[in-house]
Amino acid sequence: MPARVTSQPSFSGRVSQPSTAAKVFTGLAFDTCTAPSATTMSAWRAHSPYGAAAVYVGGRNRGCAQPQLTSSWVRTVTTAGWKLVPLYVGAQPPCQTSSNPERITATNATSLGTTDGADAVAKAQALGMRAGSAIYLDMEAFDSSDTSCVSSVLSYIRAWDRALHVHDYWAGFYGFTSSSAAVVAQAKSTTPGMPDALWYAKYDGNASTTTGFPFSSGLYTGHRRGHQYLVNQKESYGGASVTVDRDAWDAPVAVV
């Protein structure tokens, strides 16, 4: 399996970074809405090309039930060799067309980001994901031409990131190259407190975090990129079938 895990001493050029080194996984990862059973994870570990799996640890806007996702499951799959990518579905933008129950507004952006960031840490801790873990904020597509909306989104993201840093967790971000990820990438060079790592959705079938990178080549270098490159693929390994999205990964993961 072409993958490796390393510890990075720190990421430079940031404000108030965590003191605990990030653990980086480099290789192929998958994400799926509901965490698979331990039995399926065991079969996939033995037969699939993947070395990491994303799991939705919390957030009021999380869309799928997680009957498998317990601290025992986390211990079992990580002992088997899996690396985990925690996802938190936080509040969504005010200019987004959706029915999500938790929404950002101009007035609540900072306070809500702080509250949700603290909740993300608590959810990760309850699963046995320790300080030094990265947690990725999931923000779906929105109208990035709406400047007031973008301002609220950035305030929320900065507050969420600060809340993670206070507890010594790394702040990641998942978003689309056409909107949410683009907003973060554009702000990264000029705005303090942007996420430490960027997981971007670009469905080009290219399993790489460098070739075809859609933003400035100097952004998120040094093992800070994930690329969701293909979606809704039904795959079967060791007799177990799961519909997944495929990711090329070179970024921090959970420390268990």
Automatic annotation (TrEMBL):
Domain Rv2525c-like glycoside hydrolase-like: 43-249
CDD domains linked to this entry: GH25_BacA-like (cd06418)
Pfam families noted in UniProt: Rv2525c_GlyHyd-like
Name the UniProt record assigns to this protein: DUF1906 domain-containing protein
Lineage: Bacteria, Bacillati, Actinomycetota, Actinomycetes, Kitasatosporales
